[in-house]
Design goal:
Blueprint (H helix, E strand, L loop, with lengths): L4 H13 L3 H24 L5 E11 L2 E10 L7 H22 L4 H12 L5 H7 L1 H11 L6 E16 L2 E13 L5 E9 L4 H13 L4 E7 L5 H8 L4 E4 L1 H9 L4 H14 L9 H15 L25 H7 L3 H14 L8 H18 L9 H14 L1
Parallel strand pairs: 3-6, 6-7
Antiparallel strand pairs: 1-2, 3-4, 4-5
């Protein structure tokens, strides 16, 4: 049957104006393209004959279509058009994952997706579409690591998590590493209901199983016995306790009217970016400070404990990096990024959901800001070589 262009246009217009007509035209066009592709394939492969069709669901103009995908006997034919549709599905999955990672709930993601693409997804469907993303994050969290790191920053943050029909705050441990080239890498994110030194030792040991053999410095808060856990896992590692945490704890002992004055004294004791004082001298100054005020504020006595000399380890390092290692600020910032994503959701349905979101945040940080090396950290390796040479 030979039709003029005007007749074809009239026919197409009638179809387009009918109910679901636009989708029907698109479906017919895509089916025709794939059938034409199969014809070209048969010309290039004479022995591979047609073998019917299989169905494949796709979307167009906010509605679902069922395409007829041509098959061949040998099974070597695959329409180029399907690659386009598959790439579109992948883009949709990435969009859903990106929205969820940035703090939207599954219900909000569904609303956005419906507004853009005209399709509504249930919470279960959103979770299913993110299945591949969950697997990617899980694999990334178990990946092999480098053998040596310049610095570890370790810290735990607490998130309301549902477990066995009740909700409580549980600990999520993060280890942030500085690689030998000066770039940062999130090495581990794990869940434990509580925080303790033995649990930290367990996680440090797990890094060895993933390839880590040594670390130069570990920066942590003042958790009881954390120094023993670090020493047992990495014998030769130096240890820096977080000065910011200590200052905060000391200031809390004093009334508000004296805190400005005490703060100035603490700035002198914990001098940064200086080589004018040794670790031992700085610790002695802290002990003198405690001696000065302990009569009026007896709770200060614990701050002169010998373990607290680890608050001054940073003085052994080059001036250019002292500000970067005297506290856990870097990992605290990462914890804030976690909380920004988690806070919109209230209590998380499971620890797995928390780890998925925290892992996705860490991956994004690693591929954006953490990938750029902080070159001054290379001075640590230079200092290490000088010390080793002097010892020889």
């Amino acid at each position: 049957m030979n039709l003029t262009h005007a007749q074809i246009s009239e026919l197409l217009l009638n179809i387009a104006n009918s109910e679901n007509g636009t989708n029907l035209l698109m479906q017919m066009t895509l089916d025709a393209f794939m059938k034409s592709e199969r014809h070209l394939h048969q010309l290039e492969h004479p022995g591979d004959s047609a073998n019917g069709y299989r169905t494949r669901k796709a979307r167009g103009f906010g509605k679902e279509m069922v395409l007829k995908v041509p098959r061949t006997r040998n099974g070597t034919f695959y329409p180029v058009l399907l690659n386009v549709l598959r790439n579109e599905d992948e883009e949709h999955r990435k969009l859903i994952f990106s929205l969820y990672r940035r703090g939207l709930t599954t219900e909000q993601v569904s609303d956005v997706y419906e507004e853009i693409y005209g399709k509504e997804y249930s919470k279960q469907q959103i979770s299913y579409l993110m299945k591949d993303s969950r697997e990617e994050v899980s694999i990334w969290l178990k990946r092999k690591l480098d053998s040596h790191y310049l610095v570890f920053y370790i810290d735990a943050t607490f998130v309301h998590t549902r477990r066995e029909k009740s909700v409580s705050k549980e600990g999520y441990y993060t280890i942030l590493g500085i690689k030998e080239d000066g770039s940062r890498e999130v090495l581990s994110i794990v869940n434990h209901p509580t925080e303790g030194a033995l649990l930290w030792q367990q996680e440090l040991e797990s890094l060895k199983e993933r390839g880590v053999q040594s670390v130069g410095l570990v920066v942590s808060d003042g958790l009881t016995s954390i120094e023993n856990a670090i020493a047992r896992s990495f014998v030769n590692a130096q240890h820096q306790l977080c000065v910011v945490h200590l200052k905060r704890n000391i200031l809390a002992v004093f009334p508000r009217t004296k805190r400005l004055e005490i703060g100035k004294e603490l700035l002198e004791i914990f001098a940064i970016e200086t080589k004018n004082i040794t670790v031992v001298e700085a610790f002695e100054n802290l002990c003198k400070f405690v001696e000065k005020y302990k009569k009026s504020y007896p709770s200060l006595k614990s701050f002169s404990n010998q373990r607290n000399i680890a608050y001054f380890t940073y003085l052994n390092y080059p001036i250019s990096i002292q500000r970067m290692i005297y506290s856990t600020n870097w990992i605290e910032r990462l914890n804030r990024d976690y909380k920004r994503v988690l806070k919109m959701r209230g209590a998380m349905p499971s620890s797995e959901s928390v780890l998925f979101l925290m892992g996705s945040v860490a991956i994004e940080k690693e591929y954006k800001s953490y990938v750029y090396p902080v070159s001054v950290f290379r001075e640590i390796e230079e200092l290490k070589r000088i010390i080793e040479k002097e010892e020889v």
